[in-house]
Amino acid sequence: MTRRDILTAVPVAFHENGELDLSGSREILEFVALSGNEGAFVLGTTGEFPSLSFEERGELVAASLEILSPVMRVVVHVGGASTYDAIRYVRQARAAGATEIAVLTPYYLKATDASLLAYFRAIAEESDGLAVYVYVFQAVSGNFISNELMARLAVLPNVVGGKISDEPLAQIAAYRAVVPEDFILYTGSDRDLAIAESYGAQGVISGISSVLPKPFRALRAAAESGDRVAIDQAQSHVDDAVDTIQGNMARMKAAYRVLGVNGGVVRMSIEAPDAAALVEIERVVAAYS
Predict the structure, then answer these.
(1) Which fold has domain 5-212?
(2) Which of 93, 128, 144, 240 is deepest in the core (most CB within 10 A)?
(3) pTM of the predicted model, to two decimals?
(4) Helix, strand, coil shares of the chain as percentages rounded to 5?
(5) For strand 39-42 and strand 73-77, is the pairing parallel, antiparallel, or unpaired?
(6) What is the DSSP annotation of 223-275?
(7) Are the beta carbons of 4 and 202 closer than 8 angstroms?
């Protein structure tokens, strides 16, 4: 199943006082809508989801579907610290018109395989009419999905795929070996777009492509062509963008300012880029926008 989807992980804009900037968030969404990417991943880590209230999530889901769904797939992240929270988010997303959702493992407290299975089973059963992606990000959630558990989750009702962040591509391959053939796997490693397919992935979910989609589109096209020279050149541009923006939301907001997009500021405790980093951000925006 050879695919190289690029799904944009979308940031959320906040005012200097920390309040949600819905107007700025809509500007970000409108910019993403012009990217040419296959889809968008909203209210995920790049969207600073742990800092959002239920009401703010509702506003952002509605805006995301309004602006993006006419031109691309929209995957709404609904994972929570508890099954109770996640099911509320599932119902909210469905009511807004979502058709695809991603579910992070519970976070903060350590969970056993038995409790993780119960969490995902309850969400899967609540998700009729929705395509569900298991979201694995041990570095931030503290919880991991073993190969054995992924095999069990992959056959739950409505579960169609997974998003795997901050794990080596070998882990993608290990999951691929135990899930059904049509199960979709995305890596969260932006720079691995061209090679992820060889490990069994169908593309990337990329926060950096939210501000610099062009080098990713060029790398996808080069990989599809098989032109080694074009692949190497495009890969060098993606690597440059990744090394500079670093998946860091404060750096993304700085890039939006250079682009003339009102991306606001971050709400969570993320250090602002220093003067040297801002110079580099301006450079990559000029080179690849």
Answers:
(1) TIM Barrel (3.20.20)
(2) 93
(3) 0.97
(4) 50, 15, 35
(5) parallel
(6) HHHT-HHHHHHHHHHHHHHHHHHTT-HHHHHHHHHHHT----B-SSS-PPP-H
(7) yes
Q: Tell whether the torsion through CA atoms of 217, 219, 222 and 226 is positive or negative.
A: negative
> In tens digits, what is the pLDDT along the chain, a chain of 289 residues?
578 999 999 999 999 999 999 999 999 999 999 999 999 999 999 999 999 999 999 999 999 999 999 999 999 999 999 999 999 999 999 999 999 999 999 999 999 999 999 999 999 999 999 999 999 999 999 999 999 999 999 999 999 999 999 999 999 999 999 999 999 999 999 999 999 999 999 999 999 999 999 999 999 999 999 999 999 999 999 999 999 999 999 999 999 999 999 999 999 999 999 999 999 999 999 999 9
Helical H runs in 97-168? 113-126, 138-141, 147-153
In this structure, the number of other CB atoms found within 10 A of the CB of residue 27 comes to 20
3-class DSSP assignment, residue 80 = coil
Q: Which of 164, 167, 232, 233 is CA-nearest to residue 202?
A: 164
Q: What torsion, rounded to 10 degrees, do the Cα atoms 168, 43, 191, 116 define?
A: 10
Other CB atoms within 10 Å distance of the CB of residue 287: 14
